[in-house]
């Protein structure tokens, strides 16, 4: 039996909650509404939430802090931030602390639904690609598309967000080739009107840190060009 994705909407504005809840329900999603941090935490404990739509300004806490706390607690539930903040730096902070996407207010509910589907698709469709290798091996790491995870030489799993995994996967699968920002934006389903190029830089900075690529030896920046994954990559399994 098909189970619709369960979406948690967290916003202290009652009218926005009702509007988004009604629209997303009409689009086939299961929806739970929360007005603050306390009700968000209760909803996460009692429901199988697949994605959180989170306003950054809540009466009892910052959405940015909530996002950071969830990632610190190793929660991999995708998060889309809703923000009235216009500065790039605020959006960059959201990406740096582990948000999967963001949407500036005011916005069309239809766009939010499209972004929700894109984020969920990034989580679910990689393992369905028939000719994808079972894993890519490089520098002691193993990237496993079907399981959407990266394992280090000690067997530990890297804590990557959905967008980080997709970006790294795109680079590793095409090692030795220069990939443009536009290509990488499309690879992370961010190639739409509200995106800014620096989001790729932010994601790559986080990926480099998690890989321990402090000296930019694995991922090279090509001036006025794009990025190249330079490590030797071994493809194992289907599609070799």
TrEMBL record:
GO cellular component: cytosol; protein-DNA complex
Superkingdom per UniProt: Bacteria
Matches recorded under SMART domains: REC, Trans_reg_C
The protein's name in its UniProt record: Two component transcriptional regulator, winged helix family
Residues found modified as 4-aspartylphosphate: 55
Residue ranges of domain Response regulatory in the record: 6-120
Key words of the record: DNA-binding, Phosphoprotein, Transcription, Transcription regulation, Two-component regulatory system
InterPro entries with a match to the protein in the record: CheY-like_superfamily (IPR011006), OmpR/PhoB-type_DNA-bd (IPR001867), Sig_transdc_resp-reg_C-effctor (IPR016032), Sig_transdc_resp-reg_receiver (IPR001789), WalR-like (IPR039420), WH-like_DNA-bd_sf (IPR036388)
Domain OmpR/PhoB-type as annotated: residue spans: 133-231
Origin species: Bradyrhizobium erythrophlei
DNA-binding region: 133-231
GO molecular function: phosphorelay response regulator activity; transcription cis-regulatory region binding
